[in-house]
Design a protein that fits this description.
Radius of gyration: 29 Å
Protein name: Chromatin associated protein KTI12
Distance between the termini: 51 Å
InterPro entries: KTI12/PSTK, P-loop_NTPase
Number of helices: 9
GO molecular function: ATP binding
CATH superfamily of the largest domain: P-loop containing nucleotide triphosphate hydrolases
Family: Belongs to the KTI12 family.
CATH architecture of the largest domain: 3-Layer(aba) Sandwich
Largest sheet: 5 strands, parallel
CATH class of the largest domain: Alpha Beta
Organism: Gymnopus androsaceus JB14
Number of strands: 7
Amino acid sequence: MAVVVCSGYPCSGKSFRSNQIKEFFQKRDIQSGGSKQIIVLSENSHSLDIKRSAYDTSAAEKPARAALLTAIIRLISPDTILIVDAPNYIKGFRYQIYCAAREVKVRVATVYVLTSQEQCREWNKLREGDDRYSDETLENLFLRYEEPSSMVRWDSPLFTLLWSDESIPQSTLDALWDAVDKGKVSNPNSGTVATVKAPTDALATLEKTTHSIMQQIMSSQDGFGGFITLSPTPSSSPLKLMLPPRNITLPELSRLKRQFVTAQKKAITLGTIERGSLDWSEDGVCQRFVIFLEEQLQR
């Protein structure tokens, strides 16, 4: 249904706001008679257990961020409101979440918890053990933070919450609920749709089938044109091909075969994002080849 991306400085109060939002969503869902699943995914939850020390070095941060993204993708679904409680301080990472949500056709909203750096430092000092950032890491994350913007589609709609407010304004909560319940759903495009790959034997089937059709054409034509019957195998459904009133030479037919095979090889090696995957069976290849030949020979 939706992904709510919480963003802000470390120790800015994102977990507190995430739980407030979850509580409000649960009440609204009950009032509307729904049965939505509302989940807060925190980076320090038991399922992820990402330590604050993971941000000490880039070598440790990359796998931690990858684990968080994997968990987000796993939990995104049409009947779930997922609240991502993590710094999400890199705009490229927020864009990855946006793309993952768009692929499943769920809404996205961003909550920016705006807190001063000084307040974050004070709250960090109150933490103990693994829950505390080192001073050096905290300052580094302040410098690297990329503030969300309502001008870019992956951060929009954007809701800014001030740390000094004890509770979230009711108007903001209502607007946030409307965004996840009735907001615009972005359709996936070629950048987010999974590419459908051809089977491993597609190239062999392509060569075998087109060669068989060539042989059948050469042996069936009589120079007067008209329909001939073709099929890749004896058990296949027969197909009709309209030949022009002349003899088709082997070099001409070989040239057309090469053109067809070259175009089909691109789909094999690069995959396809067409609606539905291409049929790489002998019947499917035969049907496409016959259509291609009929178009070329009638010119």
